[in-house]
Amino acid sequence: MTCVHVSSANLSKPGPSDPVYREDCTQCFDSIDDPAGLDVCLKCFNGGCPGDRNHAKLHSTSHGHPLVVNIRRTRKVIERDEPPLKMSKLAIAAETEADRYETKTTVKCLECGLDELDKEDPAIGPIVDSVMKANTFSQKEEVKAWEQEMTSCEHILTLQQDPPKQIESQDLGHCSKCDLKENLWLCLQCGALGCGRAQFGGVGGNSHALAHSQETGHGVAVKLGSITPEGTADVYCYTCDEERVDEELGAHLANWGILLSERQKTEKSLTEMQIEQNLRWEFSMTTEDGKELTPQFGPGLTGLKNLGNSCYLASIIQCLFDIPAFQERYGAGVGPLPDVLDPAQDLETQLRKIADGLLSGRYSKPESDITVSEHSPEVPHQKGLQPSMLKHLIGRGHAEFSTMRQQDAFELLQHVIKLITRSKHPSGLPDPTRSMRFVLEQRLQCLNCKKVRYSSNEQDSIFIDVPLEKLPAEEGEEPKYKPVTLKECLDNLTATEVVELGCTSCSSKDGFSKRTLFKTFPEVLVVNARKMAVVNWVPVKVDVPVLVDDEPFALDSYLSKGQQPDEEALPEDEAAAASNVPAFVPNAEALAMLEGMGFPRVRCEKALHATGNSDANSAMEWLFAHMEDPDIDVPVSLGGDSGCVSAADPEKLAMLESMGLGGPRAVKALKETNGDVERAIEWLFSHPDDGGAVDEEETAAPAGDKKGAGSAELPANFQLQSIVCHKGTSIHAGHYVAFIRKKLGEQTSWVLFNDEKVVKVEDVEEMKKFAYVYFFKRV
């Protein structure tokens, strides 16, 4: 068939940077696997569904792009005659589409209504072939997810080796500093052999290779047991502190008489050990008697496919779209989708797309390509929605969320809230994050003159520090911790404490009592449970059961009463008003002693501020330890400056400074973590390249949103609605899942969302042990 639009369409092949959306519709999750297939625009390569929603026709009409290629894919039935192979490497040797699917393409003109245009037409055929061969958006994401991108570095490219020599085989048998015979790393610059750091799975190490690098400045080393005859190996640059690739590894090893052809791989690579460790972080999908938990299907019971390291995203998205405000804002009945040039790059469109996918039940059905056999007796789970477009959009321009590494689920939640709050909402549609906002009120009272100051801060979550008390354990057992109640954590959060600050009213240095309570309560209270222990200055996550009743509980006792008639307020002088806290007054005697020793006044004040304003000796020790700090001569705001340092709690800032983590980076860390010190420490370690610059746009509150956050009405009863759980020793690794309270038939039950797997669970005790983020609804 011929069409008048073919000659005038001026079609061109997709370029390397052009996204080709040929897997699912950019406005819903209808895909090439549906009976109607998917229409891919031959002009801009947008994917649109041709079914009952007909987003393809909407795109064609609004953009004037009538020509499409319809792609329909049928998955071949797989008979499992033997157990599936165990994954043993990070890169998946993926089957081709031809191995797994039967695919049919048809060229259509949506304006003329012609369904079978000639694919051999020279104006169409090459374009269709290029579309089918191009990497799709989600394929690029999956490649990033499973293929760790390692590159070389300047230290490898400019490596200057010592004069060649033959290292005898007996000298390659153990570490030169100890008796370890595995996990050995050869310095490529001088040929020294040292043991590595202790690794996952009990692999020993005393870090002698690292010590050698620090002593000599030699940065590049190779793990002997990982070398293969093909020239692959674990190469690590200690200077960059990153795993690297050495394209000249053969020549570099030959300098020490080591020939690639004679090497055999004898140890697991770092990548293989990482995968093995990640595979251990799994949540039970069986009952106590070993039976598979029953998969669930229907509206609100749709899973999300793991894109590699995206379980942190899936768990947060599932909990957010369980909140009524999100369902009402982005779910069915909101109105027509916005008419935008590129739906895949529009946040409003993608949030509505994910809401439809999760809530409609349209995609919640068993995957039908696996035949049950003795090797796969389980009921098939869902295929799961692939949230590639949303993940890309959320992570765009963000240093962490744009990568394929595992991330902190709570940090993602804060980022998503920020994106939604800033986005333009269509007329008459509310910001759904308002249901999570509330106001905390801080009361400061001078211990001498008893005058008070009240200040309030609008938030969308709270941090609770979970008390750590180890239980007796047998030798060799992993440490276990005493369970604590949620009430204990809230009591600690709202307890009165004494802070060492000077009073601007009476000039007393006795300090202040400080207490924080709720001024208002939200509709949905988000609680981040901080279960962190700092070991050798490194934050390590531990598992402490936090006991939370399933039944509603009252938070009335945590409501602030505000300033009382018999309380006298501190004067709002300029210094105190700028910092919103009483001014810091340096210890005059200690300051004079430090200045008498020749230290500049700026450094003296900073040292006293960092050491609690106690005495000259402590401050002097701090000064000697921080002489090389780049910001050592930057004045600390002592209450009379409206600069960024004054925005942080001086006491918490002093704690970070005492650990050598001061300056603008510490201020930003406290800001990014809502003032949580332990979380700020972890933020600093996980953002080593962040210089501490604060985005003014981030600090500005949305217009009109400061007023009316939350409600002070009583009673304030809350009930646990959903939980994000985490297994692993760090929130940047391991595995995240969500447990959500759902209505199943006539009963309310807990449902586990483990990526694409959605199952009903009977025992919820394990989830309490690994809970990381709680969502409580007001009832």
UniProtKB/TrEMBL annotation:
Q: Which residues form the UBP-type domain?
A: 1-107, 151-260
Every USP domain range = 302-779
What are the boundaries of the region Disordered?
689-710
- SUPFAM superfamilies per record: Cysteine proteinases, RING/U-box, UBA-like
**GO MF term set:** cysteine-type deubiquitinase activity
A Pfam family matched in the record: UBA
Q: What is this protein called?
A: Ubiquitin carboxyl-terminal hydrolase
Task: Please state the gene responsible for encoding this protein.
Answer: ubp14
